[in-house]
Amino acid sequence: MVSICFYFQVHQPFRLKKYSIFDIGHNSNYFDDNKNAEVMRKVAQKCYLPTNKVLLDLIRQHQGKFRVSFSISGVVLDQFTLFAPEVLHSFRELAKTGCVEFLDETYYHSLSYLYDKEEFKEQVLLHRQKIKDLFGQEPKVFRNTELVFNNELANFVQGMGFYKAIVAEGADHILGWRSPNFLYTPKTADNMKLLLKNYKLSDDIAFRFSNKGWAEHPLTVEKYGRWVNAANGNGNVINLFMDYETFGEHQWEDTGIFDFLRHLPSEILRHPDNDFVTVSEAAEKYNPVSELDMHNFISWADIERDLSAWLGNPMQDSAARELFALGRMIRETGDEKLIDDWRKLTTSDHLYYMCTKWFSDGDVHKYFNPYDTPYEGFIAFMNVLNDLKIRAKEVMQSQGRVESPILAQTPISRVLSEAPGSSMVLK
Amino acid sequence: MKVLMLGWEFPPFFAGGVGMVCYHLTRALCQQGTEVTYVMPFGPRMLRSDYMKILIADNIFPAMRFKLHEISSLLGVYSTPGSYEEDYRKYLASLPSDKRAKALYGPNIFQEVHMFAEKVKLIAQFEDFDVIHAHDHWTFPAAIAAKKASGKPMIVHVHITEFDKTGGAGVDQRVYDMEREGMHAADLVIVVSNRIKNQLVHHYGVPEGKIRVVYNAAEPADHNAYHDASKIKETDKIVLFVGRVTLQKGPDYFVEAARKVLDYDPNVKFILAGTGDMLPRMIERVAQLGMANKFIFPGFVSREEVSKLNKIADCFVMPSVSEPFGIVPLEAMAQDTPAIISKQSGVSEVLNHVLKVDFWDVNDIANKILAVLHYQALNHQLKQHGSLEVRSMTWDTPAHKCIEVYDELLRMKQGG
């Protein structure tokens, strides 16, 4: 018996404007609505709408035997509402079939777990509420941003009480000789089941599908079916985790990716031992084969499978540090707009744009980067953060609160308060 | 492989960057086994090189044959016919009257170009070489003459065009014609950036397939450069511009951006180093904007002084309106100084670890200057990655690319 477990990640960040130092104190519209709308409409046409249609047809065709899972960030759900409501509608259609499961993640697709656990919890709860409101489901499975995971996180998530399973990357340096095609238990979370991505079979679709230099190109459903069947007898579940944008956006329609998807389920189901499961169904059906000890953080990014796409260079570290240092204070103001703006900055993509490891992973990073260089990404982000600090200061003053020393820390805000014309800025 | 290379200048007798490029390029070529004979129009009799043969046309064919008198040249690649005539008049006026009569050196730059061509034609008949490689336009007629005399293939190497120097306005038709004739007579054309390549295709009608891009490299930095700027740095950070103060280099955008920076951060000093026809106007504008105490105008600076300035600066800015390549930011980066460069420069095609701006966008220039001065993490990353990036840009790469072009040319000739 081998089960196929598809989980698709759906996410788009609120990209920032090219926000200049001269905007600080004058302009609190940080996000590039035109660009975000343009990207959303493009991806909706190329990926979300056609792929949702294919999935809906497959679910109907296979009468409950084809099942998938999604994790959809809160910020992309917001952008559906703003820029492409028809996409939201098509996801709700999928939800109604009963064959689609939605996972929980942080609403803002953030790395808040690493800096501010209280904030992390709040973002997960916000997401949970959103999924309930939109799709009528109470997620039983958690996935953290970019599959960032370790023992401690598993324990923390278990403590939240909602989840019976969690998904993570099947990183070689963790698994060693072990197979990702079994369930495991995280060392510090006895009641949680851990599903690990089969990165080889996942990336065959997500990254290599259209690569003409790949020995297996072109990838047919027959060939892929054989690889899946080969796991029969030495595995329970093949976890195919990938960005949903794989379909039609990363792999364009003319590569044949939609035809592949259309014909894959019947090919897989030709073998009587095979079936499709959602993540929580896999967790119910199978028992963990052993405990896994993951002390250090892993993720699904780049060849390193660690945090180095988002953190590690001084720009990323200082941006993240300064951003998360404001958390408690911003939350305490209770100012909804301010809190929402700050939380949108916690989206991990902003840190990803500042990544300087160009030399081996550069192509992927560049493709997803709206800025010409990581330096531009950092400058825009820090300028916005400085404006946000000024706003926070104003709100706190108006509430008669004692000003936090954090607000006085950045050189730019100090300079602003001393510069001519700054009285206009800091009333 | 034997190369007959033609240039107007060679250090220490040079007027601009092309002479330095010739020096580094020929040295790396010779290290890679290429024999170079370098021919230039004027120079002292004693000019020698330890790795190649240098021929000074004027010394080989002295005055009597060409009815010329030996004098130092007023010519640099960046001379425009207008400024040359003016320099020539000044030069004549400076001579004692008895010598003035003898200095029949041709007040017209084109006459000198023609003379050089005649001499090179003769040199080409007794020198042994496989290809002709000519740098920038004043040597192009000489290259054509050498090609005719020897039947050897010819490459022209374009470092700058008349369009860059004039910003597109007031292109001298005679210069343009000389450039164009050389490019079309050449078997292959080497350019220093895609930017120049596009100009050649669009403004000079050169077929794209004939052009090869060979980027320049960085000059080794002087790591001993030292200047005590502690008094300035006690209070102020330093933002630096180095270059000719002419339309092409965009000094006016530097000045306008400075005003915006100072509105936000008064603790900055700006150094505008170099001379040129726009300098008086820049000084006036700085005063008008109330920044006289914030600006330093050192005038012409030697290479050694440039190294010192780069060393003490906190941020280097090259806001060029049009820059065929633009080697100056490389030295700043080699001295661990973050650089902001215009996207309208050839060097922006190769550099990753700099901040890039449109030259006209003074808001963005100021934004980025302030970011470099105040965001420590940014400053640190630009320094660290920038100096590594520049260190990897050695002259071996362009020399190797030139050799590939020579080989390609000889294959073409043998095949055809």
Instruction: Give the number of DSSP strands of chain B.
Output: 13
CATH fold topology of the largest domain in chain B: Rossmann fold
Give me the count of strands of chain A.
10
Instruction: Give the overall shape of chain A.
Output: globular
Distance between the termini of chain A: 69 Å
CATH topology of the largest domain in chain A: 7-stranded beta/alpha barrel
Helix content of chain B: 40-55%
Describe the structure.
The complex is a heterodimer of chains A (427) and B (416). The longest helix of chain A has 29 residues, at 33-61. Chain A has 19 helices and 10 strands. The model of chain A is unreliable at 413-427 (pLDDT under 50). In chain A, 48% of the residues lie in helices and 11% in strands. With 427 residues, chain A is of the alpha/beta class. With 416 residues, chain B is an alpha/beta fold. Chain B has helices at 17-31, 57-60, 63-66, 81-94, 97-100, 109-126, 140-150, 162-166, 173-185, 194-204, 230-235, 251-264, 279-288, 303-312, 328-334, 362-374, 376-391, 396-415, and strands at 2-6, 35-40, 53-56, 131-135, 154-158, 188-191, 211-213, 237-242, 268-273, 295-299, 315-318, 339-342, 355-357. In chain B, the strands form 2 sheets. Chain B has a 7-stranded parallel β-sheet with strand order 3-2-1-4-5-6-7, sandwiched between helices. Chain B has a 6-stranded parallel β-sheet with strand order 10-9-8-11-12-13, with helices on both faces. The A-B interface holds A 20-22, 313-315, 317-319, 356, 358, 372-376, 378-379, 382-383, 410-412, 415-416, 418-421 and B 260, 263-266, 352-353, 355-356, 363-364, 366-368, 370-371, 374-378, 380-382, 385.
Name the descriptors.
heterodimer, A: 427 residues, alpha/beta, 7-stranded beta/alpha barrel, 2 domains, 5-stranded parallel sheet, 3-stranded parallel sheet, 19 helices, 10 strands, disordered C terminus, B: 416 residues, Rossmann fold, 7-stranded parallel sheet, 6-stranded parallel sheet, 18 helices, 13 strands, elongated
